[in-house]
Amino acid sequence: MEPAGAEPAATGSGVAEVRGDARPDGDDAGTRVPHDALVASLRPRSVPAVLDRGIDLLRIRPGRWFGLGAALLLPVWLFDLILLVTVGADTVERIPLGPSVLRLEESSWALAVIALHAIALSLLGIAVGTAARAWQDRSDPSTGELLRAALARTWTAVVIVTLAGLAAAAASCLFGVGYLLAAPLFFTASIVAGAERTGPLVALRRSIALARAAYGRALGLASGSLALTQVVRFSCWLGPVALAGLLGAGDGLLVPMERIGGLVVVVVEPLTAAFALSAYLDLRCRVEGLDLELRTRERFA
Predict the structure, then answer these.
(1) Which of 54, 66, 164, 203 could bridge 186 with an S-S bond, Cβ 3.0-4.6 Å?
(2) What total number of domains does the chain contain?
(3) Dihedral over Cα of 259, 260, 262, 265: its sign
(4) Cα 73 off chain centre by
């Protein structure tokens, strides 16, 4: 980006630079200063381009995103694996479905795993939102700092997951499509909690308000994120299970191989958080002019 207050050398290149279309040779989202990369990414985009920006945001500090994902989600995966060994495989028949993993069984332990996974995903969203707020303020917190900040907000994640879960469950009764229609309203709640440093109720209200102001767009972003993460999730889950099936493995090996495939959450959930952050930024630009606000601040700072 041009330094604040500097005039562009040429009209065309200057506009491209301010909008983030042009990048110096060898410069990409993984090596740029987080603040500059974040501000440069804020420009009008189509829904597919907003989702694509999620990948670019993931590349700003990939080690931190995946480090946070591992720190928050691997303990849930290990707990699930321990249940498999201690409780048994016949009570935990599952298929990958939804923004996390939907377990199709009656085990109360499995419900505990679902809840823990949802809370971990919400904490990841809070950490990512906290990072985005810090980048906006020209700070660059470490993985440990982001993790501690998120864990200190555990109660916020619990309330968000509980209230959003109850609302989604009620909406699911609407001819089976209610969940998909309600999901955009809560898609960015955890990001809001981290980025705007709000409590759970304010975060939920903000997420709903942003989505309602551009509901068609929010629906496209939430649905697109779900579809893309499901492709990745199902592909990685299917590989180990298909291999075990080809080897003629019985249930004793098939279910452990399924759990190994479940490690894909370390990749998929940071991707989900990146999509949610990109959606949050896009909705704020569309509804509140965030891109203009930040660029004006840059120009006259």
Answers:
(1) 164
(2) 1
(3) positive
(4) 13
Question: Is there a contact between 290 and 42 (Cβ–Cβ < 8 Å)?
Answer: yes
Q: How far apart are CA 266 and CA 69, in angstroms?
A: 5
Looking at the domain assignment, is residue 16 inside a domain? no
- Give residue 194's domain range: 31-36+54-300
- The verdict on residue 9 lying in a domain is no
Classify residue 216 as exposed, middle or buried by CB count within 10 Å of its CB (0-12, 13-18, 19+): exposed
Residues 233-266 have pLDDT tens digits of: 777 766 666 666 666 655 556 666 666 666 777 7
Tell me the C-alpha distance between 76 and 170, whole Å.
26
Answer yes or no: is 104 within a domain.
yes
Q: What is the pLDDT of residue 84?
A: 72
Q: Give the pTM.
A: 0.78
DSSP 61: S
- The residues of the chain scoring below 50 in pLDDT are 1-31, 89-106
